[in-house]
Amino acid sequence: MPTAPHPQTTDELYQALQENQRRPYGRTRTVTAEELTDAAEQFDDPAPLVRALLELQEAYTYGSEPRKSPVVFARLLTLFDEQPDVFDERLRHMLFWRFKWVSNALRALPEIPLTSLRQWLTEMRDRYEKAGLGLQPYYGEAYQLAAHVGEDTTLAYELWAARTRTRLSDCEACEICRRARHHLAAGDDERALRAWEPVLAGQESCQEEPARSLSYALLPLLRTGRADRARELHLAGYRGCRRNPSMSGEVGRHLEFCALTGNEARGLELLAENRNLFDEVDSPLDQLDFLTGVEVLLQRVELLGHGELPAAGYAGRTWTAAGLRAEVSSRADDLAARFDARNGTTAHTGRRRDRLDRAPLLDTLELTLRTRGLDDVTPAATAAPTAPAVPESLTELILRARALDEQGHPDARACWARLRTLAAARDYTHPDDPAVGPLARLRADLLAEEANRAHERDRFTDAAALNEEAAALYDDAGAPGDAAVTRAGLLLAHAEILAEGADGPETKAAALTDAHASMVRAHEETPGLTPHQEARLLRLRATALALRLQTTRSQEHVAPVFAEADLLTAFAARHDIAGQISGAHMLRATTYALSGDLPAAVTEADALLDRLKAQGPAWHLPRTLGLRGRLRLVLQDPQAAYADLAEGLRLAADWSAEAVGTTRLHADLAEACMHLGRPEEALRHLTRAAELDLWHGSRTDAYCTYGNAAQLSLDLGRVEDCIALLDSLLAEPDVAAGELDDRLVAQLRLTRARALHTGEDLKAATAEFVALAAESAGWDDDPGSHAMIAAETAVLLAESGEFGRAREAAGQALAAHAEDPRYEHLSNSLRELARLQAQQQGADGLPDALAVLADAGRVADEARAAGYEAHGRSLDTALAYEYGRVNAYAGAYEDALTALDQALTLLGEPGRDDDRAGEWAECVRLAGVVEGLYLERPAPALTRLDAAVVRLTALGHTEETESLTALAARLRDEE
Predict the structure, then answer these.
(1) What's the burial of 126, exposed, middle or buried (CB within 10 Å: 0-12/13-18/19+)?
(2) Distance CA 391, CA 625 (A)
(3) Could you tell me which residues come within 8 angstroms of residue 787 by beta carbon, excluding any fewer than 6 positions away?
């Protein structure tokens, strides 16, 4: 099936060629280029064919198909020899530039004899001399051949590097990389890094740079003690080459870097992301470079005892790390041997061996916010990082699990987990011991424990089904007390399920009232309850009423919770059930908080902490400290909150993280840190909370927390950290398979798109925004979000110069805004769209820019009518200022000045404590520029500026006067 329509005219062909050039390099672009070349053959004029062939050669070159590039170039050279007049200066330049492309292609093919490579260089030299072109590019290719073969490069380097550059020389960035690699090969890391600095610092770049240089500089940076810089450049550089067939060697070096810095798990993740390179790289030299990097990684994984881990490799089968390493090693050895046989040296085998023999340069280097080890990606990894020891005897294990469960002890989870594994085995034999009871009771215990964990994770449907099955088994086992407790849990789960589909809180409140009544009846009607069973029923009764209060926040629902909590306290005290006494006090504290009496809640938490320190249970301390910490956050005492939460986290280290709420402690500590102005520490707590959620199987919660961490890292200016974290999350199997909530995934992608924009990757950011705008257009239940996404998309399209598409996106945003207003976001985006159009197109873009501002004006009118107050600048003053700026860009200076005066009128004179002083000063400055410079009326402009400076200085806004004083000085100098 053709990928492009068949052009019927040369104009259609040229348009199709332009459209194809906007596509990323890869199979689609290459196939389209082939079809367009076939289409160009129909025209009598050879010019379209020349252009099509040039596009085809570029697609082959950057699509990593070196065997085809020389064939296309041979046709171009023939056309040039036969019809040189067809080649204007630009086409002639492109033709001679691509002699170097052919040289690179031939070097990459071991089947091309060395004599043919040298003959090609001779052809290149002869052609350059005949055309009167400088030979520095030729000597550059001669040097690269010498380095490739493994010859002494001293003379070849001097002949190239000492010559003056010409118009056909490779770009500065590429030549810098070549010189740095020459020093690197000589073992001089420092000199190589000094040579690389302009590229590493972003001063020089091209299509392949700085991504290529960054990949080569990683290990020298580590060897010279610059680990932080290496980390930074790994994140930035990997993003520039991932999944790109023409940069597979660079990907291989990033994999090697991961292997040598204790980041083998990240290496496997990146390998999976680049699985396409196993099949899409047609260049043998690039294959060798990539496969050697892959082998360094897999060799390290195998050495660490994880050879059975799954690894992404060649399509058509599944691979383990060990199996893939063997396959990769065989293929790479063969490639190196073929190149060495062609070149008559052992250079490639030796270089490959050097890479494989390198020892790790660092035991560990934290590369991303999501740090994982190989144990974390092991399929058999348990659900908790550490687990307490459990009895070996099956009878002892069952009795121990039940005893700990009665106490609410965290170690009960480990016992139940072990029993679940044993009972599921086909050869399981249940103990014949009256103390243990029948198998049905054990199976009920396991189901009830699983139901409790499901309820904790808000999986209420699962919890209900598990509780129902457990209760039936308890009945079969003759355990009516346990059955009653389990059915009480079932009632709570059913109430939550009813609430999920309800329109308001009334349905859930009614369901919880009914659940409580049913629990009371069950409590009264069930004979033979043990004290622990009765205490659990009382606790569930109190919980049902506390949830009702949480749902309604009604004062009439407060007293019933206290009454139930008091019943529980009295009963637990009579029977010395410490865990339930503590639970009752926790309920009292949270009830005070829900009723709005925060000081009383803190007092209750204080008393509970004193009791826990004196009488236990110790494992309740972390949660109680967490509760008091949250209360103190609400009371705006972040320092005290931080102290409580940090102490809770310290104590939680002694227990199972899931059982004592370690995840919540990390999340609350992150909030406290933000209040204290410690965002970097907050970021660490957020990522740790997300990691724990993943360990415990709460993947949605984990992704939400990771999303918050990504946004915070973006706010902190850690753009590459943000992108790397989100790339890692979006590559997870459940995300790729569409199993995660689509709105959550969209939010992660939106944050990533914003990070790409902040990181100045406009092309990638725009593509992601366009995709998100298309998807969110179908969110009938959330048009407001679509309005915001479409508005941001319009701005990025405008930055790319695509104003037609930008206006379409803005139209979608306005339509969605009409259903669910987003006044400020839409106004900001429309004003920016207008500014960009006027800035880029000048007077030609003014009508369209003014039309966009008219839309922004209607949004401001709607906001005013709705009583909306902007969080930032006033929509009206911002709009008036933008009219001034847009008209100024378009050369309509009188209109610009009128608009700016209107903005100043709307703003009014600033006051001493007025946060609008900066906005006012900027309006004055721009008015001064328009009046004094563009309209050439310096006298009134200076009067305006001087008066503003006096006014601002008197009010103490001296910083805002700096730009005004500088402009006034310039105007006086020009008088």
Answers:
(1) exposed
(2) 31
(3) 813, 814, 816, 817, 820, 822, 825, 826
3-state secondary structure of 214: helix
Cα gap 787→766, rounded to integer Å: 16
pLDDT band at 372 (very low <50, low <70, confident <90, very high): confident
**Mean pLDDT for the stretch of residues 956-961:** 93
Helix 638-652 vs helix 621-634: crossing angle, to nearest 10: 160
Q: Which residues contact 163 (CB under 8 A, 6 or more apart)?
A: 134, 135, 136, 139
pTM of the model: 0.85
* Burial zone of 963 (CB within 10 Å; 0-12 exposed, 13-18 middle, 19+ buried): middle
Supply 130's token pair.
């005949």
One-letter identity of residue 422 = L
Phi, psi of 18 (to 5 degrees): -65, -40
How big is the CA angle at 123 (ends 120 and 128), to the nearest 5 degrees?
A: 130
The crossing angle, in degrees rounded to 10, of helices 248-259 and 264-273 is: 160
Both tokens of 619, joined, read: 């494992």
Q: Hey, what are 830's tokens?
A: 């429309």
Q: Where are the beta strands (DSSP E) in 659-738?
A: none
Q: Which tokens belong to 954?
A: 């008197």
**Shortest CA distance to 775 belongs to which of 795, 802, 748?**
748
Return the closest-CA partner of residue 153 out of 120, 173, 183: 183
Q: Quickly count: other Cβ atoms within 10 Å of residue 359's Cβ.
A: 6
Say if residues 348 and 285 touch (Cβ distance below 8 Å): no
- CA-based torsion, 82, 84, 87, 91: positive or negative: positive
d(CA 487, CA 771): 48
Q: Are 729 and 741 in contact (CB under 8 A)?
A: no
CA–CA dist 255, 238 (Å, integer): 9
pLDDT above 50 (res 381): no
User: Is the torsion defined by CA of 743, 745, 746, 747 positive or negative?
Assistant: positive
pLDDT at position 815 over 70: yes
Residues 6+ apart with CB under 8 A from 771: 749
Angle value at C-alpha 181, between 178 and 182, nearest 5 degrees? 85
Question: For 780-805, how does the pLDDT look when each residue is reduced to its tens digit (9 = 90+)?
Answer: 999 999 999 999 999 999 999 999 99
**How many of the other CB atoms lie within 10 Å of CB of 924?**
27
Show the 3-state SS of 539-557: HHHHHHHHHHHHHHCCHHH
State pLDDT tens for residues 509-545.
999 999 999 999 999 999 999 999 999 999 999 999 9
Render pLDDT for 846-905 as a digit per residue (tens, 0 to 9). 999 999 999 999 999 999 999 999 998 899 999 999 999 999 999 999 999 999 999 999
Contact 320/311 with Cβ under 8 angstroms?
A: yes
> Quick one: which of 470, 491, 575 has its CA closest to 533?
575
Report the Cα 912 to chain-centroid distance in Å: 42
pLDDT above 70 covers a percentage of the chain that reads 98
How many CB atoms sit inside 10 A of residue 51's CB? Answer: 19
237 pLDDT higher than 90: yes
Residue the block writes with tokens 């908080």: 593
